[in-house]
Fold these 3 entries.
Entry 1:
Amino acid sequence: MSAVMTEAASTAAPLHQPSPGLWTLAWRRLKRDRVGMVALVIVVFFLLLMAGSYTGLVAKNWSKEVGVSYANPSFMAGAENLEGSKSAAADPQANVPYVDLSDIDPLAPRYKEWEERTAKIKITETPRAETLPFGGDKWGRDVILKAVKGAETSIFVGLVAAFLATVIGTVLGALSGYLGGRIGDALEWFYNVFTSIPYILLILAFAAVFGSSPALAEYKGVGMVVAILALTGWTGIYRLVRAEYIKHASREYVKAAQAIGASHQRRMFVHILPNVSHVCLVQLSQHVVQFIKAEVILSFLGLGVPVDSVSWGTMLAEAQAELVIGKWWQLAAAGLSMAVLVTAFSMLTDSLRDALDPKIK
Amino acid sequence: MLAYVIRRLWQMIPTLAGVMLLIFFLFNWVGGDPALVLSGKITNKEQIENIRKQLGVDQPYYKQLGYFAFEVANGFTCTYRSYVDADGARAKLRAEGKPAPCQAVRSWATNEEVPKILVTRIGPTLTIMLPVLVLETILGVILAIGVAYVRGTLTDRMIMMVCTVAMSISFLVYIIVAQYYFGFKWGMFPVQGWTGNFWKDLTTYAPLPIMLAIFVGLAPALRLYRSFFLDEINHDYVRTARAKGVAEKVVMLKHVLRNAMIPILTNVGIALPGIFVGSFLLETFFSIPGLGREILVAVNRSDFPVIKAATVYLAMITMIINLLVDVMYKVVDPRVTFK
């Protein structure tokens, strides 16, 4: 035994190369996966877009009403736009015939003073564009900028909720799988309770309660959607992490850690966690996709982000009514950007799983 | 077998108690004072106190939990307050020689009886969801076996690619576009509606939502079933069958299909409780008076009794169906033994 080991050591020693770890190997495998790399680039692009929109670098003026109502996309410049021409047609007061009421109006003596005061106020009228690159919404806002802003909300909710759900699932899974016993039983009971209620119903019940709770009224909005998704979505991660911890708890390296006096927490989160972290990462990635889809549906139904902020879901809700009058661009912008991101993210998830766990194929 | 079923039923009790605790905690504690939710803009203290008394929320929490358990046990057909006749209304009726039935729990929004709401809404939901589940499974299996047959080819990869993209588009976009084109623009189907006449609904109003649900559900089903078939193909018995000269078609249809049906049926079993909730999105868009839409409306109106009842009973149905699916395993796969 010792002879073999010294032989192996002697051949490896001159190279001075530490053997690559799990993450290095996974990264190498991912780099070779062309589809995975393309997906990664797209996902990073969306994340940068989100960061840019959050800091105000991109789509800062998304709420500016730059075009006429339902401005046509610039590639459809000639198309008729009844709604737009209506809103562009000067102010409606111009058509009201002027009636002289000064002899009966008690405020008549003040007319002159008011006219002078109004004359002092400068009014600049910005011309509204007839066309926008990808069309405008009802208020003449640029749909592309709106989609970017919507991406910020939707991706933010997806990322944060998935992160929180992964943390909850991992911590509970670690406790249940590693400690077992009474705590494990209690957590299993908790898990059974959550999974015996159909998932959609669980989300709706949480949404109903959080929405009407006076104590939580001030947190309404993005934070509440994140909380609802995270509190209902941890179960799948819990299940997998628990199974991993049960497997690892009896491994030799954990026993060795125990022998040198590592505490339970240390064994759980310093020794075992790095060895199951690839499971967590794949689950995180999968849940981001799932939660982005869920956020879009919740916001569409009015249970998600508040009316004044924009997400892909609220855009789709507006687009539903617009489609009937032939304005399809908002639907296309929100639907397409979401489809691209979700496709890229799911492919990245698949590639990540292949890269991290080459045994499963 | 019988011992197994009894033990499983016994194990359901703590889970069911947990579900009730969770719902009670959410709606009676996190959800704020139900009386304030119900009274809305009424500020009259006396009136609010009256509502609290009627709902029983002036009592301590453990008593409220007891009332809730009592209502769950009798199917929300009799409130505890009415059962013990707290306001004397039933005693009065009885004194007059009239029948004095127990008052059911009522919706806060419409004052309809909750059990009646649930029973009348389940029909339309099943009218949509049962055909969806059956057709989706059959189509999924047929297509998946086809794709597994040509595994590894360009066709296979293209189909998988299309599935990934199709799954990425929001269900909302599919519904909005389909309703616009098939219903509004081309007039092939009614845009929305429901009559209550089973055959008319199934032939006129249901086809578009059913087709949409199948179309959307097919991509994930196809991907999953294909992976089940591919798992089976690598087994020894398949190699043996090929080695003894069985045709590839027979191998797929006779050997592989039968074994792949086990995980497929498991999957159908997991999806089965979901058909009772229905697709609340489809029901909302096509204004189908089903359970999903009812729950959604209740959520928007903070109509807690309806949500509570629906959640508890759907959790029960889920548990029972899961047990039935586990028992069915034994029937489908004789190798399974109950622990």
Entry 2:
Amino acid sequence: MISIDYDPEVLKYEDLLEIFWSAHRCDQINTSRQYMNAVFYHDESQKIAAENSRAGAAVKQGLEVDAVQTTIASVGKFTYAEGYHQKYYLTRFEEIRDILTKAYKTEKELADSTVATRLNAYLGSGMKRDWAIFIKELPDYGMPEELEKALSKAAVRMLEGVK
Amino acid sequence: MKIRLIILGAVASWAVMSGLAETLPKADGKVSATTLPLDAKTSKVKFETATFGLG
């Protein structure tokens, strides 16, 4: 389960729904609650948006709406996962992980951190990344000078590589 | 007697296990990370939450 805090001025809930539907086969039967495909809505407007998006997702995957197995349910109470599940890709970057662990004493703080989330996504995930934004934001990450320089240099290389 | 011992053993194991189990935090609608500059900035932004499960 993943919980995303987002700025509605920048991103719409519908955009997140689109990414969610495209990230899984929606005719896959949920066999366990722990690993189920589901939209957990927080309010009525999210419920309506999720239900409205279901048919479109089915069509995109060449399915009848009735074949969709993805659950749409109320979120209830969200419990954070254990620390070792948080910012998983950063476990490969000990220096960065140590800096973040010193800055944030609790696992909840680390999980809530935008800096940790950004670094995790940029350094580890295979998702589309905008290195120009990364370079621009980097001074606000509060990393030690030398590390910041190294990250910036690596990002510039990535930026030049994709041009 | 045997049944009593089994029950006692089960209760004792449960008591030890629940003592050892990590208490995980629950979402409270607040962003707790504010130390680093970007976190301090984003923690002031009014946000909404989306929750998904992916198998």
Entry 3:
Amino acid sequence: MSDVSAQIEAVSPGAVVGEWEHVGELTVEVQKERIVEACRALRDGPTQYLLLSDVTCADFPDEPGRFRMAYHLTAIPSGARVRLRAWAGALDPEIESVTSVWPGANWMEREVYDQFGVRFAGHPDLCRILNPLDWDGHPLRRDYPIGGEDVQFSDAV
Amino acid sequence: MSTTDPGTQNFPLAAEGREALEAAAREQRALTPTERVIASVEAYTPEEAAERTLANEMLADSRPGVRQPLLLNLGPNHPSTHGVLRLIVELDGEVVREVTPVIGYLHTGIEKQCENKTWWQAITLVTRMDYLAPFANIKAYTMSVEKLLDMEVPARAEWIRVLLAEMNRIASHLVWLGTSGLELGAMSVFFYCYRERDELLDLFEMVSGERMNHRYFQVGGCSDDLPPGFVERVRTFAKEMPGRIDEYEALLTGNPIWKDRMEGVGVLPAEELLALGVTGPTLRAAGIPHDLRKVAPYSGYEHFQFDVPTSTKGDSFARYLVRVQEMRESLRIIEQVLDGLPEGPVISDDRKVVLPPREELAYSMEALIHHFKLVSEGFKVPAGEAYAAIESPRGEMGCYTVSDGGPKPHRVHMRDPSFVNLQATAPLCRGGYLADLIAIVATIDPVMGGVDR
């Protein structure tokens, strides 16, 4: 078990589902209910993952968990990196917000909500960010069509 | 009320405010803070707004001594907001109580479109995000794909990438310095900066054929070798540029107006900036020397001697000084690249990924087949995920790619530093003057093409 998994397990036993090392990057998959605990453990741990570089999501329509969240953490000052992964669930995807650990997650999670429709429990301002507020659907889902949408804003010219 | 309602159709902003109300009503939930601000600043047509004069409002809430806050809509197309950034500012007199940035006006769905392009076609799209740092976008993307392919990039290609990335950093900082000067009323510096930027764009055109949005870097290296005369011209530029930077500094660094507008303006402790995800010069000006070129060297940055400028003040003036110093450090790197540029190929010879040389098509059937397959179907990338991060002029530019093993990406996500850094606007501006907000936004240096993608 890697250092990272050990640090998470020490604070939240049973949270780690698996870990991989691929193309030189460490990925640790955690249970989605434990994501905040895992993040806090790494931020406050000895390696000091103080910077949340990125929060994003990828859609796998054939997988049972469907929406795979990816959190990219960077240690300051060492620059070590780790990716946390968690599946948000196919029906009514929801995961706890990590804004309580890093306030900078605010816009990143709003973007995931906007583009994928994953809801973040405990997020202070969960509304659309890149698309217009009344947009229908979540464009980055794999089943969202790429062509043939109505032309938006044509009435605003 | 819908957007085609006759009362609002000529006033798109009024329509958009109502969209917020409609969306919340449909989902049977309360408005979020951002939606509430958008709705309250714009849910009225001019006729309705005329009814709601300040006098009328105060009649409605006429407790003596109650100060009425003012909601001011700045942008989305305001000359001082550095692009199509919209800021809704809650003012108490001239003091900023709260700022709500509203973004998305340049959203073009690049990440979605990438999923429908082959890996090499997507390069064209990602280059167009942060339009002031195209070489940074493309470098992060190609690095991520090269990671998944487990590909070796020739040394000469990496050095050329470093050279262009550093030239790009200078060009980007010049636009930042020039436009920041304009926004704060120092007009002449804009013309000085654009004079040198133009020389850089000429050089980019020389090497890639395009002044902006170059797709010169490819997966595996660079599309072509440096043209004849290029190195000499860059050398001349690098020799002249320090004197030019002295000129900008002579205009600004000791200028009492510039200092008054910048010093002590927009300060946050470094820990808070870090918690907000802020990277790049904005973070370094607050005292954390986090620069990916030093912390996690890529493309051979470990071979070059350069310093990471930092400051401990963390105000707008410190951000200005750090960026100016960064231009000087970039020039140091450029000179080292020119002195030690290794010979050799500029792109990998992996025929399953990289196009064969043009002349080979004339005599090699195999090269012709490879060329046809690469152009029509594209190359396949082994399944997996990779995150590559580089130091763009604005901070950590990351690219997260997921492959399902096919010729098209399953997911491309760009972590754009402008998008994340912009979150610091509100905490930096709170409690300051409205005029300081302009200086703060200018020194965060967001590029809206990168923010909205």
